[in-house]
Specification:
Layout: E1 2-14, E2 27-33, E3 36-42, E4 49-50, E5 54-61, E6 64-67, E7 73-76, E8 88-95, E9 106-111, H1 119-124, E10 129-137, E11 145-154, H2 188-192, H3 196-202, H4 209-217, H5 219-225, H6 230-236, H7 238-241, H8 244-255, H9 262-265, H10 271-284, H11 294-301, H12 307-321, H13 331-347, H14 349-357, H15 363-372, H16 380-393, H17 396-404
């Protein structure tokens, strides 16, 4: 039995035209693996991806296994006609304006068995992760091709709780209400034109979260106003400019960041970008440097967006949305803690008196809540809705949540 996590990233498309040979208006791709689906819109000017770019699928397939006399396991995959459909990745292209949504613009498919050896061979070669770039030609169009980066992470012995995780890879709780994410019956430009208050009230569709967070938080504008090579320049200085204390602290924290999440537990390459982002930010903003809790926030961002986008969203969060939260004196958090304490004295005097009599402070709880933004407290779906409101309307939502708790 072959089990694994398949990570599919859309790199770009080329020479994609509609059936009537006219230009595309609002193109997007649909990815199908068995009964699992994911979507990505692309920019019509450059045919590069926008919004959701990386998709995680669980792949599982029967395989024939034989053991040689030297005890080395070798595997011969089943013939294509007898393989389970979970190993066939289908890619379909659409254009909202040119054709009906249920009529594909073009399609292609690839058998995962053609890209990667079996899980047994991966284990025999002491490799649990493989990555390959592929170029697929779309059928049923005048011309067109799509480039994908497909990674396979071996899960031959998957965690016992793999069926107990939500759509984002986190352990489900009794309050988790996972819903199947489908492509909204609206075009990207219609969805993204919604106001920040509307997003904060009703939530942001999963497929648009990354782009909406970047736009409404101001991170996209920050990135556009900086040098295009700013982040790369910071990364090149990590080895020579980062002090030993920061390097040591970041290294400790990245190893214990979401240790049970499949993306970080089984994807050994995921820790590198997280480490690089945190160290680069310590150089970018030396007045803050690195503060514990930033690793969880950065890792959470990187589940939804590219490394450099996560860097600029982190910069906006620390510098503009939550000013002085992560500075050495943490004065921003202290101010919000005082607000909560004053509220308790006015609205819950009995609770406030109880805490004072026992030499307790609400900050003993709320400090961690504020710094980690409830990432390790609420189900992921609740956390994401709070992030939607935080990016669109500011930190007031978090103070309100603490007061209600």
């Amino acid at each position: 039995r072959m089990k694994g996590l398949l990570i599919v990233k859309l790199l770009n498309a080329r020479n994609l035209v509609s059936k009537d040979s006219n230009g595309l208006s609002d193109p997007y791709f649909k990815f199908i693996l068995g009964d699992q689906k994911a979507y990505s819109t692309i920019k019509k000017e450059t045919l590069t991806p926008s919004f959701l770019e990386t998709f995680n699928f669980i792949i599982s397939s029967n395989e024939q296994i034989s053991t040689t006399t030297t005890t080395t396991t070798s595997t011969s995959p089943l013939p294509p006609h007898s393989r389970e459909k979970q190993t066939i990745l289908n890619v379909e292209a659409y254009d909202w304006d040119r054709i009906p949504p249920d009529d594909t613009l073009g399609s292609c498919s690839i058998d995962i068995f053609e890209l990667f050896p079996s899980s047994s061979q991966l284990l025999a070669s002491s490799c649990s992760h493989m990555c390959v770039d592929v170029c697929l030609y779309l059928r049923d169009v005048s011309s067109g091709e799509v480039r994908l980066r497909i990674s396979f992470i071996d899960l031959s012995t998957p965690p016992s709780d793999i069926n107990e995780r939500d759509a984002y890879g986190f352990i489900k709780t009794t309050t988790t209400t996972t819903t199947t994410q489908t492509y909204p019956a609206q075009r990207a430009k219609d969805v993204m034109s919604r106001s920040a208050s509307d997003f904060a009230k009703n939530g942001i569709p999963h497929v648009y979260k990354a782009e909406a967070w970047l736009i409404h938080s101001g991170a996209k504008k920050r990135r556009a106003q900086s040098s295009q090579t700013h982040y790369d320049s910071l990364c090149s200085l990590i080895g020579s400019k980062c002090n030993a204390l920061t390097l040591e602290q970041v290294e400790k924290d990245v190893q214990r960041t979401f240790p049970n999440h499949p993306y970080y537990k089984y994807n050994k390459e995921a820790v590198g970008p997280l480490r690089r982002l945190l160290l680069a930010y310590s150089l970018h903003n030396p007045s803050v440097g690195y503060c514990q809790a930033m690793n969880f926030i950065a890792a959470f961002f990187m589940l939804f967006m590219e490394e450099e986008d996560a860097f600029w969203l982190m910069d906006t969060l620390v510098d503009a949305i939550l000013p002085r939260y992560y500075t050495p004196d943490m004065s921003g958090v202290q101010v919000d803690n005082k607000l909560v304490e004053q509220y308790l004295k006015l609205r819950q005097p009995s609770l406030s008196n109880f805490l004072e009599e026992n030499n307790l402070s609400i900050g003993m709880c709320s400090m961690q809540w504020f710094l980690c933004l409830f990432i390790d407290l609420f189900p992921s779906e609740v956390t994401l809705r709070l992030f939607d409101a935080l990016m669109c309307t500011g930190r007031a939502i978090y103070i309100q949540i603490v007061l209600q708790m």
